[in-house]
Write a structure and sequence with these properties.
With 382 residues, the chain is α+β, with helices and mostly antiparallel strands. The protein folds into 3 domains: 6-123, Translation, Eukaryotic Peptide Chain Release Factor Subunit 1, Chain A (2-Layer Sandwich); 129-277, eRF1 domain 2 (Nucleotidyltransferase, domain 5, 2-Layer Sandwich), CATH 3.30.420.60; 291-380, 60s Ribosomal Protein L30, Chain: A, CATH 3.30.1330. 36% of the residues lie in helices and 22% in strands. It contains 11 helices and 18 strands. Strands 7-6-5-10-11 form a 5-stranded mixed β-sheet. It has a 4-stranded antiparallel β-sheet with strand order 3-2-1-4, covered by helices on one side. A 4-stranded mixed β-sheet has the order 12-18-13-17, with helices on both faces. The radius of gyration is 24 Å and the shape is globular. The two termini are 39 Å apart.
């Protein structure tokens, strides 16, 4: 699985010279269905080549542009890390690939910029979370979404507590503990007894700082919720050193080795889903309360220029609709066409990512969840 960051989005969202090809495919983790996924990619690239030549590109030039992507079709190491969704972005100067835990619908788009709206479920305000598993035998970081969780390659930290502390049996070596609840009902931190308990906790704190440093460097400023998973006496110690600003208050307790990954995912999802829903519901209430004022709009001809100038504070956009046209920078107007005309782009996609890159909250929802039959609606900053 690959990681998609805001830095990636900034790069992908830039309009450049020449055609930009975006390919989205539903895929599977490596196994019997991988060959079918490879065939699906070959077919999608064949469609992309037809779109390029229909747009006026010479066949040899189209083939050369798509050559790096075609090479992936039979590249076994690439498919060994496949996930439930594949996104390819092929431009004149580079190609980017993302194997992501999101089940995309098959889509091939050729435009002057990359088509990024299907990524909103991952990088928008309602997106993904992180699950950090702490145990004696293995420490792992997992990225989760509504589709499930997958482990990522967390480098730079010891793989286990046993390795870090050089103990054969962490729980039996000079350490006793108990946890409980205080009179107010909150959990007390772990209490260590026996010889060397101060050194034991000190070593744990030192080790957890290494993990926190590794997690912070890996996330690169990603502010998605982080959920801890582990035996309950370790979690309060990790919380003491944590520097991630979105650490969830609740945790998945119990040894990660003794529970199925699916069980831990369901427990973690039950923790983060209310956080996602609270943020989205709060934004929807703000939109509803301000509806009809000069600070709200669902008019694309007004909203697209506002997004281009960083005026959007909160945006709801339909994931299952398209709005074709173009933005004219000289006149600062959005021109809408139905049906699409040559050179048009999806204005919903354009508005969503211009808003996202300017720091707006962006929520991707089905059209029937948007207010008053609109395809997008926003709260404006000014």
């Amino acid at each position: 699985m690959d990681i998609l960051t805001h830095e990636d989005l900034t790069t992908l969202a830039v309009r450049g010279e020449g055609p930009h090809v975006s390919v989205y495919l539903p895929t599977h983790r490596f196994g019997p269905q991988t060959q079918a996924d490879q065939t699906a990619l070959k077919n999608a690239l064949r469609d992309a080549e037809e779109l390029l030549t229909d747009g006026g590109m010479r066949t040899p030039d189209a083939a050369a542009l798509l050559a790096p992507a075609k090479a992936l079709c039979d590249e076994r190491p690439f498919w060994l890390r496949s996930s439930t969704g594949l996104a390819l972005f092929i431009g004149p100067d580079h190609m980017r690939t993302f194997r992501l835990p999101e089940e995309f619908s098959t889509r091939v788009v050729v435009d002057r910029r990359f088509h990024l709206k299907p990524l909103l479920g991952i990088v928008g305000s309602d997106r993904h979370f992180w699950l950090l598993n702490l145990s004696q035998k293995h420490v792992s970081l997992m990225r989760g979404s509504r589709q499930g969780v997958e482990e990522v390659d967390l480098t730079g930290v010891p793989e286990s507590l046993a390795e870090a502390l050089r103990w054969d049996d962490f729980e039996k070596t000079s350490l006793q503990f108990h946890t409980g609840t205080s009179g107010t009902g909150s959990r007390r931190p772990a209490v260590f007894h026996g010889t060397g308990e101060t050194d034991v906790k000190g070593e744990l704190v030192q080790y957890f700082r290494k993990i926190d440093k590794g997690v912070t460097e890996y996330l690169q400023g990603d502010l998605a919720p982080l959920v801890l998973s582990g035996v309950d006496y370790l979690l309060p110690i990790y919380r003491e050193v944590n520097s991630h600003p979105a650490l969830a208050e609740a945790a998945v307790t119990g040894s990660p080795e003794s529970t199925y990954p699916e069980t831990r995912f369901q427990q973690a999802w039950s923790i983060v889903l209310p956080l996602f829903e609270q943020a989205r519901d709060k934004a929807a209430r703000r939109l509803d309360d301000a509806w009809g004022s000069s600070k709200t709009t669902s008019d694309p001809e007004m909203l697209v220029p506002a997004a281009m100038h960083g005026r959007v504070d909160t945006l709801f956009v339909a994931t299952d609709r398209e709005l074709w046209g173009h933005y004219d920078g000289k006149t600062d107007t959005a021109v809408i066409h139905s049906p699409a005309q040559p050179g048009d782009e999806d204005l919903l996609d354009l508005a969503a990512f211009e808003a996202l890159l300017s720091g707006a909250e962006v929520y991707a929802v089905p059209a029937d969840e948007l207010p008053r039959g609109s395809t997008l609606a926003a709260i404006l900053r000014y």
